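During the practical work, I worked with a single protein chain and the tokens that describe its fold, as given directly below.
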Amino acid sequence: MNSSIDFACPKCQVTTKISQEIDFISFGCPECQTVFTKNKDDKFECLKKQQYTFHDSILPVGAKASFKNLRYEIIGIIVKKTGGIYYWREYTLKSVSSDDYLYLSESNGHWILLEEDNSLTGMNQQESVFTDSNDITYDKYGTTSAEIVGAYGFFDIKIPQQNTKVLEYINPPYIISRENINGVYTYYKGVHIASSAIKEAFGVSDLPFKSGVGIVQPYFFNLYQTAIIFCATLLIILISHKVMNLERSDKEVLNEVLSFSEFKNKEYLSPSFNLQGTSAPLRIDLSTPISNSWAYAGVSVVNEDTNEEIFAEKDIEYYSGVEDGESWSEGSPSENFYICGLGPGRYHLSISLSKEELSYNTNAISVKARWESASNWNFGFIVITMLVIFGIIALGKRLFEKSRWSDSDYSPYETDTY
């Protein structure tokens, strides 16, 4: 059975418990906010009284979670402050079954899971970029001098009274850092971890509210992968469009001259026709020798398989004359219009006609209907739409990155000036 620690605070006597035994020389009481350290007589003496409120940490000392197929327990919590107003919390987790350690860092609701990595000893704060042993390149984010304002739980070091210095490089969602405490360097490599994963690991429902952009929080979309997906989608659509319309050409389905008198009180029904291929517009051309008069045609396209009907109508008007010695005209004796999106199937046309009663010279109207070749307009619309979407995503990415780097002295983005 594993040993455990039940440690009563020397000041308030409230017990802090963890389920494993560790060697510690410093203790921070979550109840009375007092930090103790062992003296030369191996007794705990008060080091300082803290002002930071422990309940802001949310995850308590002794909380357990599973990471990388191992069970870990929080044994210590450090709260740091920089710039007078920026706080973040660092949780030390020890495996309950081994000597493995992990570290959780949380700032403004954004979480990073870290572990020590001694392969990073070549980090130099003079360099703007750093390449690790896996050939991953990181950009310098900043150097920070942080004050420890809270320490809770058990620690194997004396809690520093002076500021710690941190050097950070990032390649979201990854981060590497070097911490300098009393001249002793410790190196870490970490990765962003979602709040949902923290909740699941610890079995909690409430965590600090997320605000702003985390230092290594990934953007919602990977621009490169999104571009590949968009290009592949467009290529598939284009190939499909071309293949389905490989032998497609304009098809005339009606070419008739209809008498106004014959179809004055009844509709003209065209012969049936079959359409095959992708949807395309049906163009209707009307022409009649009117002069200073009008005519009308209403066209219904009837799908004989479904009995669905699409209706469109057109007025034909043409007027002309002479006024103040100058001739003028308005309208045209010929008109055309489209019935769009006509898909494959068996159809016929139903046409109703009328004209001005006093138009004696207008006896007939020419009606032509042609199912046109599949248009590239739809494909062009898809291209434009996807370009707009990608542009919005790219703009969002830039704004996201500018926000990420806004607190860094090494931002690759120009600072807005007013």
